[in-house]
Structure formats: structure tokens, C-alpha cells
Design goal:
With 211 residues, this protein is an alpha/beta fold. It has seven helices and five strands. A five-stranded mixed β-sheet has the order 3-2-1-4-5, with helices on both faces. Helix 4 links the parallel strand 4 and strand 5. InterPro entries: DnaQ, Ribonucl_H, RNaseH-like_sf, RNaseH_sf.
């Protein structure tokens, strides 16, 4: 046997990877999956995912029925972050193993554009989980609503816009804040508002490349 061997991946990951072979260039048929993670902390290399929540947008409509919510079993808990997200080590919430949650997440986001607020962190957390499963990184196109908001403005700046600050600015009631599903829904509303502002700024129909 030669020094080179082709690495094989499980069927669920191959199905996920295959979903990106046909490029969708039409905005109206693009499926945007807005997601959020709640975690044990803010270091992707040391912390772990506690929950994943999503909501889907297609043709600029939120489809709540096309959503995913997973709570993940974890041994490591940080008392300070529990005060924020409220997810306890034990309790009535049904939890699953991390590998099962990631499998469900990959199935859910096949062929989709991923959207999150300050998306780099959430993607890093998912990628670390994939690494623990000996799988490659996410392949989806990514949209950061923090950066999208800056695109709607005529003067760019380097200011950090938190989810709380933008919800307050656009008068969005913050129900279920600091739950993955709740934050995903808030982010979806912001995404639609920013898309409308961007369309007005460009004075033409939006294209997928605008995001």
C-alpha cells in the first residue's frame, strides 16, 4: 500500500458535503439557517456546546416549523455561564450526546447559508465538535449579522454591535434571550431588517452575493 490513502467519512457527513455540489445562485430559493449556540464558556478550544438552536428563512420569510433545537450532555459546567443560559447539568430537559446533536445539525443545514450574530464564535464551536468526531470543518457560506448591519450603513466603522444593542436599536422585544433558539429567532428578525435596509441602500433587488 502506498503512503497516500483516501480518508473516508461516515454517510451522514458525505450527504452533508454532497449538498453543496450544486450551487444555488438564486436568492429566492436560498435557504438561510439562522443559528446560535449556548456554551460552557467563550474559548472554543476548551469549552463545549450546551445547546444549538435554529430557525429557517426562505424567500425572506421566517419558517419556525423548519427549526432545530438540541440540548447536549456535558460533564463540564461553568457556574458563571449557567447564570446566563440557565442550562443545568441535570433537570427535566432531554439531552443527547454531542455526536448525535452534530449529526442532526449537519442534516438540518445541508445546502444552506448559515447566519448568526458574530458567527465566527458559533462556527468555531461547531468545528471543534466536528474535530472531536474526526470530521472536516463546516462547508456552508456564512453570514454575520453584525457585519451585515455595517453593510447597510454608508459609513463603515469598527464598532462591536451586540445582539442586545441592535435589538434595542430596532425595537425588537427580547423574548427568550440567552437561549439558543430564542437568540436564533432574534437574529433572524434582525437579518430580515438588515436585508431590507441593504436593498434600499443598493436601490435594486438583492443578490446572494450581497450577503
Amino acid at each position: 500500500m502506498g503512503w497516500f490513502t483516501l480518508k473516508t467519512y461516515p454517510d451522514f457527513y458525505n450527504a452533508y458535503a454532497e449538498s453543496f455540489k450544486q450551487k444555488n445562485k438564486h436568492l429566492e430559493t436560498t435557504r438561510f439557517v439562522v443559528f446560535d449556540t449556548e456554551t460552557t464558556g467563550l474559548n472554543p478550544k476548551e469549552d463545549f456546546i450546551l445547546s444549538i438552536g435554529t430557525v429557517t428563512i426562505q424567500n425572506f420569510n421566517i419558517h419556525v416549523a423548519d427549526s432545530l433545537e438540541c440540548y447536549i450532555q456535558q460533564e463540564n459546567y461553568n457556574a458563571k455561564t449557567v447564570e446566563i443560559h440557565g442550562i443545568l447539568k441535570t433537570g427535566s430537559i432531554k439531552k443527547m450526546e454531542e455526536t448525535e446533536a452534530i449529526k442532526r445539525f449537519l442534516k438540518h443545514i445541508e445546502g444552506a447559508v448559515l447566519v448568526a450574530h458574530h458567527i465566527a464564535f458559533d462556527v468555531a464551536m461547531i468545528n471543534q465538535a466536528l474535530k472531536r468526531m474526526d470530521l472536516p470543518k463546516l462547508k456552508n457560506k456564512l453570514v454575520d449579522t453584525g457585519q451585515l448591519y455595517k453593510k447597510t450603513k454608508y459609513v463603515k466603522d469598527h464598532k462591536h454591535y451586540s445582539l442586545d444593542a441592535l435589538c434595542k436599536k430596532f425595537h425588537i422585544t427580547m423574548h427568550d434571550r440567552h437561549t439558543a433558539s430564542g437568540d436564533a429567532y432574534l437574529t433572524a428578525i434582525l437579518f430580515l431588517k438588515f436585508a431590507a435596509l441593504l436593498k434600499a441602500k443598493k436601490n435594486r433587488p438583492l443578490r446572494l452575493s450581497d450577503f
